[in-house]
Amino acid sequence: MALTGGPAPGAGRGSVPGGAALGPPGGPADVLAALGRSWTWMLASAVATFVPGIILLVWPDTTLHVLAVLIGLYLLVTGAFRFVWVFGREEQGERLPGLLLAVLYVLAGVLCLRNPLQTIAALSLIVGVVWLVSGMLTLFTALASRDLPHRAVVLGAALLAVVAGIVVLALPAESARALTRLLGLWLVLLGLVEAAVALAWRSALRRSGIGSHGPASTD
Residue ranges per domain, the chain? Predict the structure, then answer.
């Protein structure tokens, strides 16, 4: 889950959030950086969290194998979103937590997709640890970045992830149905928070005269 509000909007019309100058992309890193600073990318990340939650709530009787596949795919996709988001950060110190989270999500996704680990206890442990670590690192980033836009929302999202991780670890589900309902509920809540952050970031971009991919045209 990409729960940060992105870098602060630049003051000039010739800059993008974080103060980076606009211009033709110089390479793959520049393309990823522009994508990571886009509010639409943040919203897509929210959808990637929200949709699996809805599926789990609507289909609570899914088998353990299907549940593991859904969770594994969710973690892999979220890891990809976080990896791209890292390139959108201007400060090197803000990139390390995001990179660590991206690696954590990808590794956890791979573990969920492995057949020997498809047990209720294993899935609960993997998801609980991922959410707990993710929430703590996001909380650290929000507290360390005092100029972070919509800092209060990001702090709330981080605390929500920490609580979700603690609940999953402290109250392990005794059946696939119970675990499905619990994970589905938390994914929906986290997806809604991520969507709120993305829309708030869009508002910040518009107030600064910058669109999702650059400054507004004067034609």
Answer: 28-207
